[in-house]
Design brief:
The complex is a heterodimer of chains A (about 110) and B (about 110).
Chain A: E1 4-7, E2 10-14, E3 19-25, E4 33-38, E5 45-50, E6 56-59, E7 62-67, E8 72-77, E9 86-92, E10 103-104, E11 108-113
Parallel strand pairs in A: 2-11
Antiparallel strand pairs in A: 1-3, 3-8, 4-5, 4-9, 6-7, 7-8, 9-10, 9-11
Chain B: E1 4-7, E2 10-13, E3 19-25, E4 31-38, E5 42-51, E6 54-57, E7 64-66, E8 76-78, E9 87-94, E10 103-104, E11 108-112
Parallel strand pairs in B: 2-11
Antiparallel strand pairs in B: 1-3, 3-8, 4-5, 4-9, 5-6, 7-8, 9-10, 9-11
Classes of the chains: A mainly beta (about 110), B mainly beta (about 110).
Chain lengths: ~110, ~110
């Protein structure tokens, strides 16, 4: 079963708009939630990550919002740019267990129209 | 640093053939892993290793073997290729302490006919 569920599968946003990608998880042992960005023909790369002791983390135009009680987290991209067009993966793991297994969501293909 | 390198970049196999996907990292990372990426399925863990001589199964291990004789190398073997193994394969590595950033290689696109 999919331990991390991600939506939507694809998203089209106009330049300058806000892109929002959502993820939900079931395993309460997860305590580290990274987001990865993947450009075509490349491997994924870490974009931003959060631990559940904070409700929000911001790095530039990228923000993670975290709702521990709902077991949901989301990525917000402010002022979206064509260069942000990529596939985004949310993920989760348990640092307590040595972070041995990073579980990924299904991915969201984001297209920013100029 | 070259980071995580993978060879080959592309490969076409016939059903039943075997091959090895190569992965190497020069960051002295203890943890290495293999994922496959399929449309709508995200990245699924095949096998992982927490150090030389130690490997374990991930979510989708059937049809694949791994070994870890050195810290740097983590090859993935397909024993008898099947069309269901057509996918893009990514190798990744990271430290097992401190910041848990995982570094991915550029991927190998495998087609089994």
């Amino acid at each position: 079963q999919q331990q991390v569920k991600q939506s939507p599968q694809s998203l089209i946003v106009q330049k300058g708009g806000i892109s929002i990608i959502n993820c939900a998880y079931e395993n309460t042992a997860f305590d580290y939630f990274p987001w990865y960005q993947q450009f075509p023909g490349k491997g994924p790369a870490l974009l931003i990550a959060i631990r559940p002791d904070v409700s929000e983390k911001k790095e530039g135009r990228f923000t993670i919002s975290f709702n521990k009680s709902a077991k949901q987290f989301s990525l917000h991209i402010m002022d979206s740019q064509p260069g942000d067009s990529a596939t985004y993966f949310c993920a989760a793991t348990s640092l307590i267990q040595g972070a041995q297994k990073l579980v990924f969501g299904q991915g969201t293909r984001l297209t920013i129209n100029p | 640093n070259a980071g995580v390198t993978q060879t080959p970049k592309f490969q076409v196999l016939k059903t039943g053939q075997s091959m090895t996907l190569q992965c190497a990292q020069d960051m002295n990372h203890e943890y290495m892993s293999w994922y496959r990426q399929d449309p709508g399925m995200g990245l699924r863990l095949i096998h992982y290793s927490v150090g030389a001589g130690i490997t374990d199964q991930g979510e989708v291990p059937n049809g694949y073997n791994v070994s870890r004789s050195t810290t740097e190398d983590f090859p993935l073997r397909l024993l008898s290729a099947a069309p269901s193994q057509t996918s893009v394969y990514f190798c990744a590595s990271r430290r097992t302490s401190g910041r848990y950033e995982q570094y991915f290689g550029p991927g190998t696109r495998l087609t089994v006919t």
